[in-house]
């Protein structure tokens, strides 16, 4: 994996509290599969899970190889949301008590769907250990605490992600893994060079780290006036992979003609969010009263909502707040029954609740055989083809030529083995076929398998395999693809 790190200690901390619904825990298991298969040889890893108590796969982080990855995945497959509440502090303390592995920088991935009562204590613990690791956090679902997720990433020098609604967990998590495998821009400082009479107040919090592909917005407020010069300069200094660097930008101090307040509100929002992080969640300690007051004042002045303020309805005629509970209006609902034209429930002549099923024999004609309920035989959802193929990859990055791979490719063993050039090794042929299938059928999910494909290409190069061009041509013919050798990375 030439463009990313080949070392590191990767620690995954997964929420298994009762609030992690069946679909959430399943997605978490699938995501762990992708993560583990994408790790580089030579690294170390471990998996912790927590609820009211916590568990771990290994007593200490183990070296990444075929034996340890198989053992870990067997235990991951059995994970359920059955550990009770959401107590994250103790497993974090246990992780930080583990001695660091020389030349293996620790990368911590935290997955949770809820809130904790000791958010500040958890974040402070991460901050105290920030010199020895980076922390990447993931909020799953609508109930995840933004203060916790953002605080973990901010103090841990990592990156925060939120998975809500119809979001897929895998692409976001794999993006963070790419960040973890690459050097980050650190020691970031912003210096302003302004003419006399003009001062600046930084509104954005300091940038802890910036990863490849990320951007950071810096807001500042200028006050005063100068007749000497109409130009200022800002210098951003940073360190990347141990090499110091800096960038300068000259800008005009002449006020823009646009009188809109969009930028001002964005700046106010940044300050409010930063203050909220310091104050904590509503209902915090009494010594947070001063910070809460600042948030409320700035929120009211700027018209930007906060955790302590909200917009209310006001009667335009007398400028008084409208009192009373929310009212519920009945809205006609449309329905669509298997090709029938949409109809409004309001327009039905027969009330739904008074319908007699005996009067509607035609309803049975609108159901396919597949629609009938079979309570005696629950259906298991088929495994995702991509995850099926990924699960077969070895820790080294290769695939084996066996009936399982043939089934994942939608072929029989004979169909897969027959086109193989005689002098080509079976695992080389199998790995090339897997790469062709990924590039030919799963380009829409490339960010999910890109890292493990890079590992496969590195393995192929190490084999110094011959007849690669012939293998790619034969693989395309077998799978019905038109993938170029260069596109695969060979």
TrEMBL record:
All copies of domain VWFA, residue ranges: 9-177
SUPFAM superfamilies hit by this protein: vWA-like (SSF53300)
Superkingdom of this protein's organism: Eukaryota
SMART domains (alphabetical): VWA
GO MF assignments: aldehyde-lyase activity; zinc ion binding
GO BP, one annotated term: carbohydrate metabolic process
InterPro entries documented for this protein: FBA_II (IPR000771), VWF_A (IPR002035), vWFA_dom_sf (IPR036465)
Protein name as catalogued: VWFA domain-containing protein
Source organism of the structure: Gasterosteus aculeatus aculeatus (three-spined stickleback)
């Amino acid at each position: 994996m030439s463009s990313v790190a080949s070392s590191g200690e990767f620690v995954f901390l997964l929420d298994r509290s009762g609030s992690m619904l069946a679909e959430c825990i399943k997605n978490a298991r699938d995501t762990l599969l992708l993560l583990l298969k994408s790790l580089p040889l030579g690294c170390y890893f471990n998996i912790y899970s927590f609820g009211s108590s916590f568990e771990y796969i290994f007593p200490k982080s183990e070296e990444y190889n075929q034996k340890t990855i198989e053992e870990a995945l067997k235990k991951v497959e059995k994970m359920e949301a059955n550990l009770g509440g959401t107590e994250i502090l103790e497993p974090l303390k246990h992780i930080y008590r583990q001695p660091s592995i020389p030349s293996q920088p620790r990368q911590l991935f935290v997955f949770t769907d809820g809130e904790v009562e000791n958010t500040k204590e958890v974040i402070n613990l991460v901050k105290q250990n920030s010199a020895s690791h980076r922390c990447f956090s993931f909020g799953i679902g609508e109930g995840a605490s933004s203060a916790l997720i953002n605080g973990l990433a901010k103090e841990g020098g990592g990156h925060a992600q939120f998975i809500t609604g119809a979001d897929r967990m895998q692409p976001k998590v794999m993006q963070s893994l790419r960040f973890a495998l690459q050097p980050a821009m650190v020691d970031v400082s912003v210096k302003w060079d302004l003419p006399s009479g003009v001062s600046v107040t930084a509104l954005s919090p300091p940038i802890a780290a910036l990863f490849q592909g990320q951007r950071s917005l810096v807001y500042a407020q200028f006050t005063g006036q100068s007749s000497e010069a109409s130009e200022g300069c800002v210098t951003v200094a940073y360190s990347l992979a141990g090499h110091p660097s800096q960038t300068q930008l000259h800008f005009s101090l002449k006020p823009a003609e646009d009188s809109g307040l969009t930028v001002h509100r964005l700046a106010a929002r940044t300050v409010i969010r930063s203050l909220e992080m310091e104050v904590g969640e509503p209902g915090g300690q009494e010594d947070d009263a001063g910070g809460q007051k600042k948030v409320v004042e700035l929120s009211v002045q700027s018209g930007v909502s906060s955790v302590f303020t909200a917009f209310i309805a006001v009667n335009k005629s007398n400028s008084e707040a409208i009192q009373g509970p929310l009212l519920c209006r009945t809205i006609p609902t449309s329905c669509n029954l298997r090709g029938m034209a949409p109809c409004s429930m309001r327009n039905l002549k027969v009330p739904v609740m008074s319908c007699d099923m005996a009067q509607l024999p035609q309803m049975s004609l609108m159901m396919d055989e597949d629609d009938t309920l079979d309570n005696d035989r629950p259906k298991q959802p088929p495994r995702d083809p991509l995850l099926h193929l990924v699960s077969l990859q070895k820790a080294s990055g290769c695939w084996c030529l066996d009936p399982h791979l043939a089934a994942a490719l939608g072929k029989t063993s004979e169909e897969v083995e027959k086109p193989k050039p005689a002098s080509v090794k079976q695992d080389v042929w199998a790995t090339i076929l897997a790469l062709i299938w990924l590039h030919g059928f799963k380009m829409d999910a490339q960010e999910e398998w890109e890292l493990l494909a890079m590992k496969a290409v590195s393995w192929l190069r190490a084999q110094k395999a011959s007849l690669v061009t012939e293998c790619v041509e034969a693989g395309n013919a077998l799978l019905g693809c038109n993938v170029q050798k260069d596109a695969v990375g060979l």
